[in-house]
Amino acid sequence: MSDRYHHGNLRQALIDAGIRIINESGEDKLSLRKAAALCRVSHAAPYAHFKDKEELIGAIKASVTEQFTEELKRAVDGEENAESALVEMGRSYVSFFVCNPDYFKFLFSSLNIVAHIRPDRQHKEDYPPFVRLKETYLKYLKEKGIKKSRDEQEADILRLWASAHGLAAIACMSGVETSFDWNDRGAIEALLL
Amino acid sequence: MSDRYHHGNLRQALIDAGIRIINESGEDKLSLRKAAALCRVSHAAPYAHFKDKEELIGAIKASVTEQFTEELKRAVDGEENAESALVEMGRSYVSFFVCNPDYFKFLFSSLNIVAHIRPDRQHKEDYPPFVRLKETYLKYLKEKGIKKSRDEQEADILRLWASAHGLAAIACMSGVETSFDWNDRGAIEALLL
DNA sequence: GCTCCGATCTTTACAATGTAAAGATTAGTA
DNA sequence: TACTAATCTTTACATTGTAAAGATCGGAGC
């Protein structure tokens, strides 16, 4: 691991280095060469693992998205019924990005959030956070004994998603001061849906 | 204007060139030097008008934001009552970015949407699209004779904004195919609020 | 008209970056 | 043990942002 010619696990090390750079210096300071330098490797070494910079960034996004998904799961696990789980999930969605505004900018600056997870897919059903939301929503319907058409369900989920995502976006915009405490659980819950 | 040493209106020309590059080749192809080349000017000429690349990009964002604000105004002007104006404004918010997905990515990738309009300010009250929304919302309250506390009003506006912005974000994510027609006025109106 | 000043633009230069190509090193396999 | 493919280094080049020094020009004042 120290001074060997072969790094051992360069691919993952580059991803970790990328995340570290984003957290410490911001996304605009992220470069192939800096990530390589952090791994004590020549600036061309990453090309053995990634086709180009875009592919490295994609892998980093996939990693951060996984973190995000885990956070959503954890939030839901603590709740007893599906209704409170749905609200808690929305709160958690906003909270994750309020705590990591740089991640919001990083993840959603490409407008292609699915491709990083499953390169061949481009449907929201392949986007883990969406899948989690849909699961919880369907549980909620069942729990309450509510019957809805497929289209109504689709619209409901879209509304929920848009609500959480929109609030997260507004909360993350450092230039948009709202007289709002984005860490106040009750306050955010009141905004959701 | 043709081959003179002084361009005449380079500042605006650079902004227009930037917008053109974004529309034709995407934001990632936007560079100081390409914008300068489009204006038939040396690559260092922009520094007479902008401190650095960031400032040029800020000016471009301000210009696009102005376009966006005009669109919102136009949408509201056609409506007779404030309630329909509010809905139409939300539809217009989404529609503008569905028609120009690159603009969404461009405008909201910085997370500092106010600074470009008024460099010294960082409050949402200085962000024209927000001001338009607030205006229309307050007219709506008056029209309906509804009394609400300052906090309730604040929350309502935030909900409206987040709803529209979130839908726009989801609609713009090319990797997220929804079985949804983002040009269907009625369908989008049903999703708002 | 002429002079001068500041704004505007060019030229030159340099460092950082992404990436291609050729070769060195090594792990794992036949 | 020899070979092969994966991994990494070195070298090279084009593109970029930006700084510095100087050229050009428009307009204010005389």
The greatest inter-chain interface is formed by: A-B, 40 and 40 residues
Taking all Cα atoms into account, the compactness measure Rg of chain A is 19 Å
- Measured as a percent range, the helix fraction of chain A is 55-70%
Into which percentage range does the β-strand content of chain A fall?
Answer: under 5%
Based on the structure, what is the oligomeric state of the protein chains? Answer: homodimer
The beta-strand count of chain A equals 0
Number of helices of chain A: 8
Q: Quick check: average pLDDT of chain A? A: 91
- The separation of the N and C termini of chain A measures 50 Å
Runs of chain A with pLDDT <50, length 5+? none
Shape of chain A: elongated
Q: Largest sheet of chain A, if any? A: none
Q: In total, how many domains does the architecture of chain A comprise? A: 2
Structural class of chain A: mainly alpha
Order of helices and strands of chain A: HHHHHHHH
